[in-house]
Amino acid sequence: MQVISIEEQSFYQLLDTVLAEMEEKFGKKEEEWIHETNAMKLLGIKSKTSMQRLRDHDLIRFTQPSRKIILYYKPSLLEYLDAHANK
Fold first, then answer.
1. What does the domain layout of the chain look like in residue ranges?
2. Which pLDDT tens digit goes with each residue over 32-65?
3. Helices 36-43, 48-56: inter-axial angle, 10-degree rounding
4. Which of 15, 29, 37, 71 suits a disulfide with 33, CB 3.0-4.6 Å?
């Protein structure tokens, strides 16, 4: 077995180069499901009660994989924003 040793800075430069090429080749995929804090930030909402109201009225799409975790479907949040934009 051969061991290759490189400087730390060179390693991180190589890693950045590989990641950039992978993103270019495969495209950077955005996450479709986001956490509540990110959803609230995207919608400009500061209250969890407002998020609950949006869920209750089926205005946005969400999933609840466990009791305390609620994830929001980002395209539905953007659709909600678009539907309520001034034309």
1. 33-83
2. 999 999 999 999 999 999 999 999 999 999 999 9
3. 90
4. 71
